[in-house]
Design goal:
Helix content: 25-40%
Radius of gyration: 18 Å
Oligomer: single chain
CATH class of the largest domain: Alpha Beta
Largest sheet: 7 strands, mixed
Structural class: alpha+beta
Length: 256
């Protein structure tokens, strides 16, 4: 089956239904279009995200199954709990989005390239300026950025994009703070897009795409937290038990 091409000259060109996404490569739905704010927001609401490399057209994906993390399912290991209690690191939200994205885009030891192209960086910085994208930043005691993550928030869903670490556990620390705040703010879902050993080890799980889309429709229409995001110093982090605040009715709804 040929993939659908979006006309970059037509900002109103609709995405095809996600059910038309290819099985191989898993989730490839469309190509072309642009990274304008309107199109990106529409894509995320529909369970679609852009992912491509330099030299490729913009590629749009909606894999099945989908990797998601429910805040109450976050897995905090004993060693990570120790880091939360003993490291003199400071976590901030939305204070240096561009540097966080740039750090996520930097080459990794296991990969020479990056999918976060200059075009993507510009688009997500624009989303941040308009209040749709957020960063979680981890700083050491000298004020140096050592880890973090960023993503897009629509309604009460956080769509994770990328994370980075320059010290052991720094990105995990960012994720714990994010999940704690999202749970307190009533966000039921973090979209992780694709499964990886790292994110699955932290409690992410795979769910069928139809279920993911149903959950999006419910949560994306709920009012989100006010912007800019700021760390709530009154929230317990080091001794937080993610599962303790689980609402049984929410758990049942996620299985439907």
């Amino acid at each position: 089956m040929a993939i659908h091409w979006l006309d970059p000259a037509d900002p109103h060109a609709p995405f095809p239904p996600v059910e038309r996404a290819l099985r191989e490569p898993d989730g490839l739905l469309a190509a072309g279009g642009d990274l304008a704010t309107k199109r990106l927001i529409e894509a995320y609401r529909l369970g679609i995200f852009p992912w491509y490399e330099v030299g490729q057209p913009i590629l749009w994906w909606s894999p099945d199954p989908r990797a998601v993390l429910y805040p109450e399912h976050l897995r905090i290991t004993r060693s990570l709990r120790k880091t939360l209690r003993n490291r003199p690191w400071r976590v901030r939200f939305d204070t240096d989005f561009a540097t966080t994205v740039g750090s996520c885009a930097a080459p990794r030891s296991q990969s020479a390239g990056t999918w976060i192209t200059p075009q993507m960086m510009e688009a997500y910085c624009r989303l941040h300026a308009e209040g749709h994208a957020h960063s979680v930043e981890v700083y050491d005691q000298e004020g140096v950025l050592i880890g973090g993550l960023y993503g897009v928030a629509i309604g009460r869903v956080f769509f994770g994009e990328s994370m980075f670490s320059r010290r052991p556990d720094a990105s995990k620390l960012a994720l714990v703070h994010l999940a704690r705040h999202l749970q307190a703010w009533g966000y039921p879902l973090i979209d992780c897009q694709l499964a990886s050993p790292h994110i699955m080890s932290l409690g992410a799980e795979l769910i069928p795409r139809p279920r993911f889309i149903r959950q999006l429709k419910a949560a994306c229409t709920s009012p989100g937290h006010a912007v800019p995001w700021r760390v709530d110093a009154t929230l317990e982090i080091a001794n937080w038990d993610p599962a303790a605040a689980t609402n049984p009715s929410d758990a049942r709804a996620r299985k439907s």
